[in-house]
Protein backbone atom coordinates (compact mmCIF):
# COMPACT_ATOMS: atom_id res chain seq x y z
CA UNK A 1 0.00 0.00 0.00
CA UNK A 2 2.74 2.46 0.94
CA UNK A 3 4.68 1.48 -2.16
CA UNK A 4 1.59 2.14 -4.34
CA UNK A 5 1.06 5.46 -2.65
CA UNK A 6 4.68 6.47 -3.27
CA UNK A 7 4.37 5.44 -6.93
CA UNK A 8 1.24 7.57 -7.33
CA UNK A 9 2.97 10.55 -5.71
CA UNK A 10 6.05 10.04 -7.89
CA UNK A 11 3.94 9.78 -11.05
CA UNK A 12 2.16 13.01 -10.17
CA UNK A 13 5.15 15.01 -9.04
CA UNK A 14 7.75 14.07 -11.68
CA UNK A 15 5.88 15.71 -14.57
CA UNK A 16 5.29 18.75 -12.35
CA UNK A 17 8.97 19.02 -11.49
CA UNK A 18 9.90 18.53 -15.14
CA UNK A 19 7.59 21.39 -16.07
CA UNK A 20 8.82 23.70 -13.32
CA UNK A 21 12.50 22.98 -13.78
CA UNK A 22 12.43 22.28 -17.50
CA UNK A 23 11.00 25.66 -18.43
CA UNK A 24 13.64 28.34 -18.52
CA UNK A 25 12.81 31.99 -18.20
CA UNK A 26 13.83 33.86 -21.35
CA UNK A 27 17.15 35.62 -20.93
CA UNK A 28 17.72 39.31 -21.60
CA UNK A 29 19.29 38.25 -24.90
CA UNK A 30 16.24 36.17 -25.88
CA UNK A 31 13.90 39.08 -25.15
CA UNK A 32 15.81 41.79 -27.04
CA UNK A 33 17.39 39.76 -29.86
CA UNK A 34 14.81 40.64 -32.53
CA UNK A 35 14.94 44.34 -31.67
CA UNK A 36 18.74 44.35 -31.77
CA UNK A 37 18.75 42.37 -35.02
CA UNK A 38 16.38 44.82 -36.73
CA UNK A 39 18.42 47.83 -35.57
CA UNK A 40 21.61 46.06 -36.61
CA UNK A 41 20.27 45.87 -40.16
CA UNK A 42 19.45 49.57 -40.12
CA UNK A 43 22.54 50.96 -38.36
CA UNK A 44 25.07 48.19 -39.16
CA UNK A 45 26.10 47.91 -35.51
CA UNK A 46 26.43 44.28 -34.35
CA UNK A 47 23.34 43.16 -32.44
CA UNK A 48 25.53 41.49 -29.82
CA UNK A 49 27.30 44.79 -29.14
CA UNK A 50 23.97 46.51 -28.54
CA UNK A 51 22.64 43.78 -26.28
CA UNK A 52 25.88 43.33 -24.31
CA UNK A 53 26.20 47.07 -23.64
CA UNK A 54 22.53 47.24 -22.65
CA UNK A 55 22.81 44.17 -20.45
CA UNK A 56 25.91 45.51 -18.71
CA UNK A 57 24.66 49.06 -18.25
CA UNK A 58 21.18 48.06 -17.08
CA UNK A 59 22.07 45.08 -14.91
CA UNK A 60 20.18 42.79 -17.25
CA UNK A 61 17.29 45.24 -17.50
CA UNK A 62 16.57 45.37 -13.76
CA UNK A 63 18.42 48.51 -12.65
CA UNK A 64 16.39 51.47 -11.37
CA UNK A 65 17.39 53.51 -14.42
CA UNK A 66 16.29 50.71 -16.75
CA UNK A 67 12.95 50.24 -15.01
CA UNK A 68 12.00 53.86 -14.30
CA UNK A 69 13.56 55.58 -17.32
CA UNK A 70 13.56 52.77 -19.92
CA UNK A 71 17.27 53.56 -20.31
CA UNK A 72 19.22 50.36 -20.89
CA UNK A 73 22.45 52.09 -21.97
CA UNK A 74 23.29 54.52 -19.19
CA UNK A 75 22.91 57.46 -21.56
CA UNK A 76 23.01 60.78 -19.76
CA UNK A 77 20.29 63.37 -20.40
CA UNK A 78 16.94 64.73 -19.26
CA UNK A 79 15.24 62.30 -16.88
CA UNK A 80 11.84 63.95 -17.53
CA UNK A 81 10.99 64.25 -13.86
CA UNK A 82 7.54 65.54 -14.87
CA UNK A 83 6.81 62.07 -16.32
CA UNK A 84 8.96 59.75 -14.23
CA UNK A 85 8.96 61.38 -10.79
CA UNK A 86 12.55 60.13 -10.65
CA UNK A 87 15.54 62.44 -10.33
CA UNK A 88 18.53 61.21 -12.25
CA UNK A 89 21.36 62.29 -14.52
CA UNK A 90 20.22 59.62 -16.98
CA UNK A 91 17.93 60.21 -19.91
CA UNK A 92 14.31 59.08 -19.98
CA UNK A 93 13.03 57.14 -23.00
CA UNK A 94 9.32 56.50 -23.67
CA UNK A 95 10.12 52.82 -24.38
CA UNK A 96 13.00 50.36 -24.30
CA UNK A 97 12.91 50.37 -28.10
CA UNK A 98 13.49 54.12 -28.01
CA UNK A 99 16.46 53.50 -25.70
CA UNK A 100 17.98 51.09 -28.23
CA UNK A 101 17.39 53.58 -31.04
CA UNK A 102 18.94 56.32 -28.91
CA UNK A 103 22.04 54.18 -28.44
CA UNK A 104 22.30 53.52 -32.18
CA UNK A 105 21.96 57.22 -32.97
CA UNK A 106 24.59 58.06 -30.37
CA UNK A 107 27.02 55.52 -31.82
CA UNK A 108 26.24 56.70 -35.38
CA UNK A 109 27.18 60.25 -34.34
CA UNK A 110 30.72 59.20 -33.34
CA UNK A 111 33.67 59.89 -35.65
CA UNK A 112 34.71 56.20 -35.72
CA UNK A 113 31.28 55.01 -36.91
CA UNK A 114 31.67 55.43 -40.67
CA UNK A 115 35.01 53.62 -40.59
CA UNK A 116 33.67 50.46 -38.95
CA UNK A 117 29.99 50.48 -39.90
CA UNK A 118 29.10 46.97 -41.04
CA UNK A 119 32.14 45.40 -39.34
CA UNK A 120 31.21 42.35 -37.24
CA UNK A 121 34.19 42.51 -34.86
CA UNK A 122 32.47 43.14 -31.53
CA UNK A 123 35.74 43.70 -29.69
CA UNK A 124 36.69 46.46 -32.14
CA UNK A 125 33.32 48.16 -31.67
CA UNK A 126 33.63 48.05 -27.91
CA UNK A 127 37.21 49.39 -27.93
CA UNK A 128 36.21 52.24 -30.26
CA UNK A 129 33.19 53.08 -28.14
CA UNK A 130 35.25 53.01 -24.94
CA UNK A 131 37.83 55.32 -26.53
CA UNK A 132 35.13 57.98 -26.97
CA UNK A 133 34.64 58.09 -23.20
CA UNK A 134 31.36 56.16 -23.26
CA UNK A 135 32.19 54.76 -19.82
CA UNK A 136 34.55 55.92 -17.10
CA UNK A 137 35.70 52.41 -16.18
CA UNK A 138 39.03 51.68 -17.93
CA UNK A 139 38.08 47.97 -18.08
CA UNK A 140 34.64 48.64 -19.56
CA UNK A 141 35.39 47.31 -23.07
CA UNK A 142 36.89 44.04 -21.83
CA UNK A 143 34.08 43.57 -19.30
CA UNK A 144 31.39 44.06 -21.94
CA UNK A 145 33.34 41.86 -24.36
CA UNK A 146 33.05 39.04 -21.80
CA UNK A 147 29.28 39.61 -21.76
CA UNK A 148 29.26 39.21 -25.56
CA UNK A 149 31.14 35.92 -25.41
CA UNK A 150 29.27 34.54 -22.40
CA UNK A 151 25.73 35.41 -23.44
CA UNK A 152 25.53 36.22 -27.12
CA UNK A 153 27.40 33.47 -28.96
How would you briefly describe this protein structure?
The chain is mostly helical and 153 residues long. It contains nine helices and no strands. It is globular, with a radius of gyration of 21 Å.
Structure notes:
This protein has 153 residues and is mainly α. Helices cover 65% and strands 0% of the residues. The protein has 9 helices and no strands. The chain has helices spanning 2-22, 28-43, 47-58, 64-69, 81-84, 96-108, 113-116, 122-131, 140-152. It is globular.
Coarse morphology: globular
SS-derived structural category: mainly alpha
Count every beta strand, where a strand is a DSSP E run of 2 or more residues: 0
Q: What is the succession of H and E elements? A: HHHHHHHHH
Helix content: 55-70%
- Contiguous helical run count: 9
Low-confidence stretches: 3-20
State the major sheet: none
Mean pLDDT: 88
The amount of beta strand, in percent, is under 5%
Indicate the radius of gyration in whole angstroms. 21 Å
Termini separation comes to 52 Å
Amino acid sequence: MIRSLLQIIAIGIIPYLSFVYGQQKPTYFDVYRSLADSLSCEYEIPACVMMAVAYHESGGGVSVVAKKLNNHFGIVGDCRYDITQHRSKYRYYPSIRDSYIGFCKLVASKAFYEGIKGNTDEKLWLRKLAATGYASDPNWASTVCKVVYNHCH
